Amino acid sequence: MTINQNHDLTAVIDTITQDLSDKDLVSLTQTLTPLSVPELVRTFERLGLRQRAVIFRLLSKQRALEVFEELPPALQGDLLDGLQDAEVARLFAELDPDDRMWLLDEVPSALAPRLLRGLPEAERQLAAEMLGYPQGCVGRRMTPEYVSTRFNFTVGQTLARVRERLDEAETVYTLPVLDGSRQVVGVVSLRDLLGADESAAIEAIMQPAHTAEATDEAEFAARRCADLGLLALPIVDSESRLVGMFTIDDAVRILEHEESEDAARQGGVEPLRRPYLSTPVLTLVRSRVVWLLVLAVGATLTVRVLSAFEATLEQVTVLALFVPLLIGTGGNTGNQAATTVTRALALGDVKPRDILKVLSRELRTGCALGLLLGALGFAVAGLVYSPLIGLVIGLTLLAVCAAAATVGGAMPLVARAIRVDPAVFSNPFITTFVDATGLVIYFLIARAVLQL
């Protein structure tokens, strides 16, 4: 059976669920057998914890390992809870060292020592060294399974080293070139090795090396790897000695993780870190309730502003009709600016020290947007109500857009400067600021124009 469309996958899951309910393991095995590894992974992501544990035990050892390696780390941790110690130890030992770190960062702290105890001594020592790096740094995401060469080796000697370690190395497409003290002095690609004369010296064909320190942020190293178009990035210690290689597949994985995290937090929720359909409802509630409470508290400021200008609203009740429009426009303008600058921060286009340049650009952008929207607001409100009401709406849109864009552009830079996630800090603050400040601007302009 091949799954080509979503309804096919749904049908397979319905069959699996029914087989599990009927405890018909023979039929269940027949349903699972034709499925490829990607199809099994997609199926696992849509089943419950106990269902996954039962299905996993019906797979052959090789297929089970292949499926396990492709699962998100959070689901790997869930699955380990439902397996016996011997199965857990075997699966963990079969993982690549960098994949083990992903898993150890997800499982409960009480489970981590049990996983490490099941490793051979050499692998356990290697894992301990990687765990010695702080969370979030590239030292926990690099692989120590690589092939290196020396600048005074020949191409033939280097190719022999590649063949010798081909089965155990995670990457052989980029080889770091070392000197006598293990410092990285260059890199050489497998393509260049295969195209060179075997008697040629590595020093003659190697290229300058781009490196990252093991204590650098993993996202920084991932973006560096992607921006430079590298298949692998040598990771060094503070003395430029090689300690591992950071591969492009891990870089892409980190960037996808960071993009998902930023998108979730800009929407006012915590990232799930697992597929949606395999996430418990209680976890969904916890991921959303905190920001809803924060925004609800911020909304009380809007109520206070409205109560302070209650007399103004009583004199010109039509002003109340435009409150949602002005708040919504200001909030959208601020969030657009914050999203743009947050993205620029992530790509390294701007730094916190560029705040004055960003403020200048966003102020001009906000004024331009405000002029366009304000002119439209003046025309519509002026025709429907009166020219003075149109003038109030037009001037308010101009002022609110300029203020919201300026604050929205500055907030991610301020957040980065105080070491807070810009995606977490920016949008809730902007929503609260625009709701309260925008109303104050609105009613002050109305009082001045309408002589209230």
TrEMBL record:
One of its GO terms (cellular component) is plasma membrane. InterPro entries: CBS_dom, CBS_dom_sf, Mg_transptr_MgtE_intracell_dom, MgtE_N_sf, MgtE_transporter, SLC41_membr_dom, SLC41_membr_dom_sf. Residues 142-205 form the CBS domain. The keyword Transmembrane helix applies. It is a multi-pass membrane protein. Homodimer. One of its GO terms (molecular function) is magnesium ion transmembrane transporter activity. This is Magnesium transporter MgtE. Its main location: membrane. The keyword DNA-binding does not apply. Belongs to the SLC41A transporter family. The chain crosses the membrane at residues 289-306, 363-385, 391-415, 427-450. It comes from the Bacteria. The lineage of its organism: Bacteria, Bacillati, Actinomycetota, Actinomycetes, Micrococcales. It is found in: Cell membrane; Membrane. It comes from Leucobacter chromiisoli. Keywords: CBS domain, Cell membrane, Magnesium, Membrane, Metal-binding, Transmembrane, Transmembrane helix, Transport.
